[in-house]
Amino acid sequence: ILVMAAPAGAMELIAVAKDGVHIFDYNSANEADPLGAPKISFPAVPTADGCAWSSDGNYLGLFDGKTGGVRVLHAGDGYSEVCMVEPLVGGPVRSFYFSPLGNFLVTHERWVKDAGPNIGVWNCKTGESVMKFVLKQVTEMSWPPLKWTALETHCCRMVQDGVVILPGNLSKSEEEAGKLKAPGIMAFECAPRGAGAGPPHVAVVIAELKGAPARCQIFRLDDPSRPTATKNFFKAQTVKMWWNHVGSALLCKTSQEVDDTGKSYYGGSHLYFLRADGEESCIVAMPDQGPIHDVQWSPTTDEFFLLHGELPCRMTLHEGRKGSERMEFGRGHRNTIRWNPFGQFISCGGYGQLLGDTDFWDKRGKRLMGASRFETCVLSSWSPDGRQLLAATTAPRMRVDNKIVVYDYCGCRISQNPFEELLSASWRPRPRGTYQERPPSPEREAAKAKAKAKAGAGGYPGAAAQPKAQAYRPPGARAGGGSSFSALLRQELGSTSAQTSSTATRAGAAFQRTVPGADPVDAPGNKDNNRNARRKKAKENAQAAAAAAGDTKEEPAPKAPPTAAPEADASGPSGENNEVEKRIRALRKKLRDIAKLKELANPDKLQLQKIETEGDLLKQIEELGGEP
Question: pTM for this one?
Answer without folding.
Answer: 0.74
